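Moderator note: this is an archived Q&A kept for reference. The question asked for a predicted structure of one protein chain; the sequence and the answer are reproduced below.
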Amino acid sequence: MSVICEFCGAELHVDDLKQGVCPKCGFPISEDNQKLLRDEAGLIDKPMKACVNCNTLLPEADFNSGQPCPQCGNDPTRSIDTEGPEVKQCKNCDWTIPAADYDSGKPCPNCGNDPRATPTPPGPSSEPGPSPGGNENELEIMLEVVIGSEKGKSFSLPQDKDLGRAAFEKSIQGVKPKFLEFISIKHMKFHSEEGRLQIMDLGSRNGTAVNEVQMEPNKFYEINIGSRIVLGKGAGVFRLVAYSQCPSIQPANFQLKELTTQVVYPVLLKSGEKEVFGREPLENGPIHPFLHDVFFDRLSEGDDKDTILAEFQHISRKQFVLELNTNEEGSPTLIITNLSKYGTKVNDDLLANPGDSASLIENAKISFGKTFECILEKLN
């Protein structure tokens, strides 16, 4: 019997349990599908335990093996937030280690180094550095947190430096965000080449994606104002809002704000362009990033995963399309066209049939999928 992802319809396999997410759309595998896959693999009667950091179900033997959780990359038996004298962190990789093992001189089970020894600084690098005549921090990169407890907070990061868990924690300067546990000690870096900003994943455990494209390690990808950067399989989502060479650019005329979570999504359209919203807006593609961010924000706030999945099932794969038009005076207007047989509601008016359209005004409320509501905000 085939096990099908409820979100995108992709067929799931036993190996997908190792990551805990659908390989096509990136959404967590529901508990019902986890049970079906375990049954298919003959694991249904084997005891399972949940990682204390991300709740991924692991066979008990794997849970107690000392190996990192395949989903979050942390020790599944110890919370990353554990504090006190009984645990310490490896100075090389930030792995949480029992204090007795740390002080004994045993190698770190994660990186294999002496956890007490500070890593030796690297020698001269052939990688591109700052432009001649400037200092290495002249390019200031500003990111905004999209989901989680620090949502809406902006913080800066430097270029040409290896950035990881410590850099994010220091820059955000707030309550320790949940997404930190998914960020590697060396996760990513920024670099500017002829005025173009680039980002590279440094071979991180949980990966980096830019604008729905999963990045290959050690390869630069160009990013722009408004680019969406996803770390750790969706746990940390950020948006590039400014950098020093173009700090005044306003990339969007409008943004959508989901009313329950307050997650925002800028509508980055030029005149005449369209964007489809839904569970699978592009053929064989992932869920729309706006819905993706709402899902993971709710998950980070403690909502039940299967409850959210059930609610999202009422959203059509192609729910509606937005089109930006500009009049003779240059004023932008958004047109919404319903694509769902179940309809899309704008304020009190139901666009009941596929093809029904309406012009959106500022603060218009868009409702769909029984429980999903967002408003349109004008930015300038």
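Archived answer notes: The chain has six helices and 25 strands.
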